[in-house]
Amino acid sequence: MRSEELGETLLPKRLALPIFASDPLSSVAYATQEILLVLTLGGLAYLHFTPWIAAAVVALMTVVVLSYRQVVHAYPSGGGSYEVVSTNLGPSAGLVVAASLLVDYVMTVAVSVASGVDNIISALPSLAEHRVLLAIGFVAILTAMNLRGVRESGRAFAAPTYLFIGGVLIMVGTGLIRYLLGDAPVAESAAYGIMPEHGDQNLTGLALLMLVLRAFSSGCTALTGVEAISNGVPAFRKPKSKNAASTMASMGIIAVVMFVGVTTLAIIAKVHITEDSCRLTGIGGDCNGFTQKTVIAQLASSVFGGDNSIGFYFIQAATALVLILAANTAFNGFPLLSSILAQHRYLPRQLHNRGDRLAFSNGILALAIVAGALLWTYKADVTSLIHLYILGVFTSFTLSQLGMVRHWNHALRTEPDPATRRRHQTARVINTLGACVTGLVLVIVLITKFTQGAWLAVLAAIVLWVMMRGIRRHYDHTAAELAVDDPRAELVPPSRVLAVVLVSTIHKPTLRALSYARAFRPHHLEALTVSVDKSETEDLQHRWQDLDVNVPLKVLASPYREITKPVVEYVKGMRRESPRDIVAVFIPEYVVGHWWENLLHNQSALWLKSRLLFTPGVMVTSVPWQLTSAAHADHPAARAPGSVRRGEPAAGRGSDTPAGRI
């Protein structure tokens, strides 16, 4: 797609919702389960805390959604938390948010895909041994779809997201109606008992508080991805801020309704689930071979009449799809944030470039590689991955709300209109509340999850922060070094140009290089060869005299058969003798048309050029000679996607000089 077609990729709200909100919407499939998994560490005695914890999560989500609606209106350029914090709290704090979000986006892909695979295995237990392969395969599919562009991926992902929303709402509605009619659904695990993790224990005081706080922090996974809309405002149709804010409100309402419904139904159906199957009592048989169904699977089975019902398979298919596609939130957020960071010189500039379909292809590929490696390392296990999750997102939540408070303070100092001041004051109250609440949750998450594995996420964010600071220093130093102080001084021509043509044998590429060097009209021109075989060198000298090209041939002795070092030392010697002169080195090369032909030639020219490029005052010029295979390779069908845009040749260049000796 042409750059001018970028406007055609902008999203209406109906497509923006599944693209940017699939992560928080799909989190209801495992947020309730994460609360139950923690509470059952103490057996069944503490499940009565479930509704209170769910209520706290709902209150937190409401505050966060309202807070981020302020961000969308105040900063419509798409930087989200990073831009808010960088502008109001300084670049270093902004980088903390950026590092935290990048880590969180990676975790979003890993957790969402792993959770989706879990739901597939709940319906088809025979696939359990292929868990890792399935997870990595889904990441590859998501990557390919996102490389096609935001709008195309939105169309593909919209249907599964809306099917999941509809399926969950139908399941919750059906289950609640049955409950009100006196036919409450009963989960298959309702009859199972659960042994406490450390034997009989009655938790009180601080121990009980820590259990409840840990369950709350696990339930906060329902909030992951909420900030993605604020990062993706530029992808919306106009009016961008209004449409983004409306989409965020819709996302918050739908997510809250589904989360409350699933949690209520889990309490009614008496779902019992643990991290370790061997802590379940009453299952019969070998506990090590017992596979527990996910909470959403147990609810679907109890509501729709068993594991073989159409409703069960529909919910499992929709849940698995939306959980896997929830990773698409990260596939949109990560490349956008990476692009902004690259534009600000905190990440490599390649991440700012758009691909063939106007998507940030390099960011998409980087995310896929890191997330795939994480799934492979943790064997696509949700329980292991979840402990690395949500720490980063609450770091960005807290700092962005603090940044917004400062933003409104600054706006109120300069705003004379009373009505506008009242709106700003209301927004400041919302953001202040958001900062206090999310800051408290951040402390809770840090305390309860740090030793569980969250320290790895903290370490990754710190390493990323240091790396981005280093990249910025490199770009700043490079820009300072390349800046032009006195244009007239830089435009002063060299005293002389000394041209050197590298020769290994006499044939057409060599003669073309000589002709090309002469066209530059250098002050001095000579040919240079390295003597590796005495008889071949003597033959070359005789042929050179017979050719009568009126260019002196310099022979460098190389008793150890080395090519690069003698040439580099000779050129450096020319520079030392005439520091104000420029040495121009011409290297004849031939171009082959197939990659395998490159394997038949050595790479001496590449080594030579790479060494000469580090020599000050030396210009290196490649003089190509296209072989017949290269001429026939320049066919559109032989080009890779994007090669025309990137200016890539269809053929491969042979990177050694003629005869492979220089």
From TrEMBL:
Q: What is its main location?
A: membrane
Q: Where does the sequence pass through the membrane?
A: 49-68, 89-112, 132-150, 162-181, 201-226, 247-269, 310-337, 358-378, 384-405, 426-447, 453-471
Extract the ranges annotated as region (Disordered).
Answer: 634-662
Q: Read off the PANTHER family from this record.
A: POTASSIUM TRANSPORTER KIMA (PTHR47704)
Q: Transmembrane helix: present as a keyword of the record?
A: yes
What name goes with this protein? APC family permease
Q: Where in the cell is it found?
A: Membrane
The alphabetized UniProt keywords are:
Membrane, Transmembrane, Transmembrane helix
